[in-house]
Amino acid sequence: MAAPPVPSSGYTPQPGYRAPLPPPNVHTGSIPQAQRPAKPRRGRWGTLLVILVVLVTGVLLRTALNTGLDTAGSGDSVRTTYPSEPGGSTGVAETANNPLVTGADLTLVPAGCKYTPWSTDVDTARTFFETAAACLEKAWQPLFADVGLTFEAPKLVVSEDTSGITTLCTGNSSNFAAFYCSADKTIYMPISQLQTDLIKDNWVVYLSVFAHEYGHHVQAQSGILGKVHAQRREAGTRSATGLELSRRTELQANCFDGMYLASSAGGGSLTSAQIGVARSDMYHRGDSSGDMRDHGSSQNSGAWFELGYDKNRTSQCNTFSASASKVN
């Protein structure tokens, strides 16, 4: 009988085909596993213990996420903020008496910045914010040196949206806008959350938002933010005292934002018309109806920005020594 034809290179075994078994006592690269004994049945107490562990783990996880998102998504809309998380702070653990805001002559000197063009394209936007970050570092670092504090520039993440972004402050949640996370010293700027459909190409507003978040990094580096975190945890982050501390923190970042824009305008990088746009925008931010009272009213939001711009002194941005009516 003639030998069967050799299959061509395109030969495919038919369904049900099985490779032939190897000859006895030949090692084929894998060692058969010994049969595992059957798992013993759990008793009633063992089952209850497993259920208890699952419940406790769930409660702890929910608590951790709520803490990380304490101010990131309150109310009906996400806003710029810093989540209330521990860690990441340096400097002197003081607020009203922090050396950064007690020096009478601490000011950001006029400095030009060659901002690159703005676009909602991620790479273009990233370059824009990287340029702004370099200028912000040059503006703030000398003030820290003047009061004997160290300054380390923050990291930056610019993304198209918030999907797939996991941070030490927000966990796996995608409910956040631009924000600063002191736990990893990073500013997150998701373009989809910057209201580009409303703001259009008025890039000074995006610069202002970024300068606000950079202001939170300034607070963290000086020790202000770490002190606030400790005080809010002690008082309860959503208690009346905890929310007031949050408002003082946010409004101070507005003031620092105004200081930087004054420095940039003084250096010839921003026009008076652009500053007018930034001023108007600040009076349309703040807590809206239904929001948790953690950012301050729209009036105070704009007022603290203007104070920072007009006075350009860190001592004028000491929201922690201001009366309650100035931070409501």
TrEMBL record:
Gene Ontology CC terms, in alphabetical order: membrane
Topological relation to the membrane, as annotated: Single-pass membrane protein
Subcellular location: Membrane
Main subcellular location: membrane
Superkingdom per UniProt: Bacteria
Segments crossing the lipid bilayer: 45-65
UniProt key word Transmembrane: yes
InterPro entries linked: Uncharacterised_pept_Zn_put
UniProt keywords, alphabetically: Membrane, Transmembrane, Transmembrane helix
A Pfam family matched in the record: Zn_peptidase
Chain residue ranges for the region called Disordered: 1-39, 70-96
PANTHER family documented for this protein: INNER MEMBRANE PROTEIN, PUTATIVE MEMBRANE PROTEIN YPFJ
Record protein name field: Neutral zinc metallopeptidase
Source organism (scientific name): Nocardia huaxiensis
